[in-house]
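Sample intake sheet
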Amino acid sequence: MTNLPTHPDLPDLTWVIPGELAAMGRPGSIVGFEQEMKALLAVGIRRIISLTERPIGVGMGPLTDFQIYHSRGGLPRAEPGDNRTFHYPDR
C-alpha cells in the first residue's frame, strides 16, 4: 500500500502495519481531543488500543460520540531503565 492515509491534525500518526495498525501519542494531546477524533475517523481508524493507565477521553467526552471503540491494556507506569516484566491474567 503506497498511499497510506494521513491527516494534518495527526502529525505523530505512524503506520506500523500499513493500512491496518497505526501508532500515535495520546489522542487530544496535540490539537485537541475532538479535532483528533475526527481526524482518526477521516483516515479510517475505528478502534483505539491504549496502553495507558488513564482511560482515553476522561474529561474530554466519550469516544462513542465518534463511533470509535476503545480497549485498554493499562500498563503500570515504568521509569527509564526499569526492566520489570508485566504479567496479565488471561482474559
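Comment: Residues 14-72 form one domain. The longest strand covers residues 14-17.
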